[in-house]
Amino acid sequence: MVLxxxxxxxxxxxxxxxxxxxGLKSWQTTLAAIxxxxxxxxxxxxxxxxxxxxxxxxxxxxxxxxxxxxGLIFARDGNKTSEDVGAK
Length: 88
What we know:
Blueprint: H1 2-25, H2 27-48, H3 59-74, H4 82-85
Helix pairs in contact: 2-3
């Protein structure tokens, strides 16, 4: 039971490592994801840390933007084939 749980965790970590390497090979979409997060998170942090309890970030914009960024991290550039990024 414990061994199978450990194997599942290791398999998930391997999948995440492959996705990370794919992100490095698809630098254009990864860069778009990073820029999206920066453009959304920095203003939100400014609003949260301005000392005024009445100012809050617009969560209706932040959550979908971060979701898109996560999708972009796992996406492949349009000019890359599956073989180029190691998906096949």
